[in-house]
Amino acid sequence: MRMTVIGTGYVGVVHAATMADLGHEVLGTDIDEERIAALSSGTPPVYEPGLQELLQRTVASGRLRFTTDVASAARFAPAHFVCVGTPQQPGAKRADVRSVEAVVDALAPHLGPGDLIVGKSTVPVGTAARLAERLRRTAPQAGLAWNPEFLREGFAVQDSAAPERIVVGVTSEHDEEVLRELYAPMLRVGVPFFRTDPSTAELVKVASNSFLATKISFINAMAEVCDAAGADVIMLAQAVGADSRIGPRFLQPGLGFGGSCFPKDIRGFMARAEELGVGGAVAFLDEVDAINTRQRTRTVELTGRLVGGSFADANVAVLGAAFKPDSDDVRDSPALAVAESIRRRGARVRVHDPEALDNARSAAPGLQYTLDVPKACEDADVVLHLTAWPEYRAIDPAALAPLVRRPTVVDARHTLDADRWREAGWSLHAPGRPQPGE
Ligand code: UDX
């Protein structure tokens, strides 16, 4: 089938390439000319394992093409996936859906009977109904459906090709059929398909992200209790997670969540629930958000104590800038937030990250950056392990010790081998876990 993808950011590119790989003829569009030129030659806009190969394969096959001309895209196919951004509004909790509205307005004049707009962007519940109303005025015979994505950065290609579920919020049999056909190869291999109304589909996305964010903040709250009680949050998480009703995933304590989805989605959800008069039902998300932010503050405070109370003249090495490993994304990155906060307090902060340095440099130009772990740690008073890149687990702590001013490390992600670091002479601090001898 023919289809378009409007908005070639993270979600759009992965969706476009995946659908082309399934055999569809896909035209991707974006207002960013440079991005379209790069995509046309097979260069993805983000670092994502497997994406470059997938993009090059599908572009070479001729089934995936890109253009900046939205009108020609509108005429190219009967189904249009909207994948533009819905950022948090500055100074407010609610999501800014103006880009989605603009795409619907741009497509509408070109749509005919049976044509379908499929929203993939994460939007406040009720947006699809409002957009459908808007569409009825200019393209009364076109349909509008909502089909949220659940991609995890770092696994986006895999998640897109083999999703755990497909959720479509539709208002007609015809629209459901179009989507069933587009996803037919996935449905044939048994991917669960949920047909809902558009509002439920919109909610599935924010409800899922709210649940996961809550799970993370729950275990981080337990880490705070463990610190006060001298208990061990890692053993607690393992034992609690062994209950099959709870499960071990998303129960890893640490520096908390960041990225482009969780923080903005839970805030947007609270704002929307308030508008709907049910703010109290999700008021707990405010606490989830606060617990999450507090993990950053706690790490800064711990670092302050470890450098003797004053950051002035302190050298701090930061391992990790991305919001999580296997990603170059620094949006709302807990690691970068901690690094910046420590720098603002007067320390010299040198940051290492294997993939995210370019993005980190533009987001936080005041920090020093290096691609070399030993260089980041040179003369450090404390080393902060803030993003769980696998290569940090492979660091030889004995080889690193002579380079630092004081062999002190904070493992905010709980993935370093604590015994090995301590045997190599390091004082290792892991929030939520007792220090030996305590
Ligand atoms: C998330 C959702 O998983 C995805 O379904 C949605 O479409 C977009 O948002 P992503 O932002 O890529 O995906 O990150 P994810 O892997 O879910 O991790 C989110 C954050 O939680 C990261 O900062 C991660 O470090 C943190 N996290 C995750 C924890 O702190 N503890 C955990 O146990 C799990």
Q: If you had to describe this structure to a student in words, what would you say it looks like?
A:
This protein is of the alpha/beta class. It has 19 helices and 14 strands. A six-stranded parallel sheet has the order 3-2-1-4-5-6, sandwiched between helices. It has a six-stranded parallel sheet with strand order 11-10-9-12-13-14. A two-stranded parallel sheet has the order 7-8. α1 links the parallel β1 and β2. α1 (10-21) packs across α3 (51-61), α10 (198-229) runs parallel beside α13 and α13 crosses α14 (334-344). The longest helix is centred in the middle third of the chain and has 32 residues, at 198-229. It is elongated and about 70 Å long. Uridine-5'-diphosphate-xylopyranose (UDX) binds at residues 149-153, 209, 212, 216, 250-252, 254, 256-259, 261-262, 323-324. Uridine-5'-diphosphate-xylopyranose binds next to α10.
Question: In angstroms, what separates the terminal alpha carbons?
Answer: 64 Å
Instruction: Write out the strand line-up for the largest beta sheet, numbering strands in chain order.
Output: 3-2-1-4-5-6
* Secondary-structure class: alpha/beta
Task: Write down the Rg.
Answer: 24 Å
Please state roughly what percent of the residues sit in beta strands, choosing from under 5%, 5-15%, 15-25%, 25-35%, 35-45% or over 45%: 5-15%
**Sheet with most strands:** 6 strands, parallel
Low-confidence residue ranges: none
Mean pLDDT: 96
Number of helices: 19
In this entry the ligands are: uridine-5'-diphosphate-xylopyranose
Approximately how much helix is present in the residues?
A: 40-55%
Counted beta strands = 14
* Anisotropy-based shape: elongated
